[in-house]
Amino acid sequence: MLPSHGANPHYVYEALQMTPPQTIYDFSENVNVFGPPPQIIKRFPQYVDLVKRYPDPLGEPFLSAIAHHHNVPRQQVVLGNGASEIFSLLARRYANKNVLLIEPTFAEYAATLQANHVTITQLIVTDVLTWELPITAIQEQLPHMAAIYLCIPNNPTGAYPAREQIQAVITMAAQHGCEVVIDEAFLDWYDDTKTYIHQFNHVIVVRSMTKMYAIPGIRLGYAIAHDNVINALKQQAPHWHVNAIALAIGTACLQETQYVEQARQYARLHVQQLQKALTTYGCKVTNSVTNYVCFKPPDAKALFYFALREGIVLRHTENFVGLNGEWLRIGIKDEQSMAKLYAMLDRWFQK
Ligand SMILES: Cc1ncc(COP(=O)(O)O)c(C=O)c1O
User: Tens of pLDDT along 205-253?
Assistant: First the structure.
């Protein structure tokens, strides 16, 4: 079976019993291609000292830094060992209840919810390209739900749906006592003013430090919500669950505004180029505001295998409900890798 996440591309070759070529270009994950901010790398020797002590039990200095960054009180922030840990905590909150998922979306929601015996209802968007929400169907389901999860911008499509639609869902959910979990793991790539942090009492916003700051190995994320929700989530988390190096690195990352802007510009340019190229090849391409795009070629499986033989690993969509392997996702990489990708796509589409 193919791995259920991008990254670690050797597992793809292993699963398919293929011998990987000597050089592999991994487009299956969507972490910032520039790597961690240079300041972080320079300071790394200083972080070694932190290993000798337990981390701050409250998560300082990162907790205060995040509160300041988003202009919210500290009591409205819970930290996580990656956004992934927040999703595990949330799944426990909704254990044995009903949760609505809008698909295609990040597969971890269903995985964590299933582990907590949550009854999941999945609705597929009316348009994959824009991730247009099925408003009427959502309206019908909300009265029965403890929560609805929205991934905005969405993974794997990168699309940011119309704000009126999201507002409509938030309003309807409030009427039924249903919480709205908004995963903004990829909002850093778009526009921070579009956040749903702290707008409504029943909205829980989840963020990840992983993608923009290229620190997936460090594990750092957080959620912002009403104090009562945050307290309940904190009670479920193990003591010292966020390590001291992550707390220090995360705090330093928040200073990196120029680095963020450069990364955004690079991604925007390459996403546009890629969208144009794939459209020219006759593929459907998602309206992405992030650092990846999803596209539907005539034969996704054949292209996926062809690319693998050339050392190019794309993200399959076998485990994304509503995409069923018929789409592929590409994360933006450095110029040299992008050139390899285009050369491969040329060979494939001109066949
Ligand atoms: C949409 C989305 N949310 C959350 C996460 C988890 O992020 P983290 O690395 O902070 O656990 C991912 C990771 O791929 C993701 O794609």
Answer: 999 999 999 999 999 999 999 999 999 999 999 999 999 999 999 999 9
Tokens of 130: 């824009």
Q: State which ligand 1 atom lies nearest to the alpha carbon of 6.
A: 14
Is any atom of ligand 1 closer than 6 Å to the C-beta of 216? Answer: yes
Q: Tell me the average pLDDT of the chain.
A: 95
Task: Please give the distance, rounded to the nearest whole angstrom, from the Cα atom of residue 246 to the centre of ligand 1.
Answer: 16
Distance from C-alpha of 320 to C-alpha of 122, rounded to nearest angstrom: 11
How many whole angstroms from 173 Cα to the centroid of ligand 1?
24
**Ligand 1 geometric centre to CA of 84 (Å):** 6
E-strand stretches of 161-308? 179-183, 203-208, 221-224, 284-285, 292-296
| 111 Cβ below 6 A of ligand 1 | no
pLDDT tens digits for 109-154? 999 999 999 999 999 999 999 999 999 999 999 999 999 999 999 9
Q: Is 84's C-beta closer than 6 angstroms to any atom of ligand 1?
A: yes
Q: Which domains are delineated in the chain? A: 10-29+258-349 (3.90.1150.10), 38-253 (3.40.640.10)
